[in-house]
Amino acid sequence: METLHPMVVHFPIALLMAAWLIETLALLFQRSGWHKISLWNVGLGTLGALAAVLSGRQAMAAAKHSMEIYQVMELHERLGYVVLTLSATIAGWRLFKGDRLGRRSRWLLWGLLTCAVGLMAFSAYLGGRMVYEFGVGGSYGRSSGVEVVQ
Q1: Quick one: pLDDT band at residue 140, thresholds 50, 70, 90?
Q2: 141 in helix, strand or coil?
Q3: CATH number of 117's domain
Q4: Which of 35, 56, 60, 69 is spaced 20 to 30 Å from 78 by Cα?
Q5: Mean pLDDT computed over every residue of the chain
């Protein structure tokens, strides 16, 4: 393994998905204490997303790839930045406002978190495609038949 990226990415995926699930349940069942649990998951997921973005930049620099792989990799990278920005915005807004968030604001933040989790899922799909279809970072997929650009 050339970089830490494959190990790091699982933390923000799990934490942000857990935050979305807990926040959804908190909103539906009006459990105010669950909002704090969700906030912890968003905060830690944001730190994990930062680590994933930084390790992803390192992995991108180390990976050999074709133009086709580069296009997938570039979209994967951009989505990582968007997810990081959304999760940091959500965490920051919630930390700033504390318990003073109204129902409308909570639903708005839930919508942003839903977007972040959806984009993260698509980005994870692209990451899996790079590994298992194109063989980036390992000996999987069809890497032997891909023209490599340095």
Answers
A1: low
A2: coil
A3: 1.20.120
A4: 35
A5: 90
* Cα distance between residue 88 and residue 51, in whole Å: 13
Q: Which of 87, 94, 85, 79 is nearest to 124 (CA)?
A: 79
Domain extent, residue 51, equals 5-141
Residue 59 to residue 77: CA distance in whole angstroms: 11
Q: What one-character-per-residue DSSP string does 31-89 give?
A: -HHHHHHHHHHHHHHHHHHHHHHHHHHHHHHH--B-HHHHHHHHHHHHHHHHHHHHHHH
Mean pLDDT of 121-135: 93
Domain-located, residue 30: yes
Q: Which three-class secondary structure string do you get for 113-135? A: HHHHHHHHHHHHHHHHHHHHCCC
Domain assignment present for 148: no
Place of tokens 């959500």: 90
Number of domains composing the chain? 1
Is pTM, for the whole model, over 0.85? Answer: yes
Q: Tell me if 15 is assigned to some domain.
A: yes
- Report how far residue 140's alpha carbon sits from residue 25's, in angstroms, rounded to the nearest whole number: 39
Bridge partners, 149 (sequence order): 65
